[in-house]
Amino acid sequence: MTFTVLCFTQLGSVLAIHSSRESLFTLGLFSNKPMLGALSLSVALQLLIIYLPFFNKIFTTSPLSWGELGLTVAVSSVAFWAIELQKLLIRRRAAPAGLSPLAADAGHSGPPEKASKHRREANAYPAKDSVFH
Fold it and tell me: Distance of CA 104 to CAs 51, 99, 113, 115, Å?
């Protein structure tokens, strides 16, 4: 069960960090079809590892009941919901002051075009533009 929780937690995190600011519900589940395909394949492989006796022996797993699988999905979804909540808070923090989310994250209090060149460049790279500041 632990193995499946870890796997599904990672898959939920991938869904949530598809965008560092926009919710998956805003972007839509089908906005990145290759990612959705990779996630679907990962879920299918995980289920094979859990339910096929051949893989049970190799990975020392045992089949989960429907209740255990439901509990696994519920526990695994905590990371997804935490990231989505963090993005919501970032958007709300920026909205009342009329700031763009980019400016709010950079600590700039004016419109994004007035932000320093360094801050604009730092936020231009996706690796720096993460929800895990």
Answer: 47, 6, 13, 10
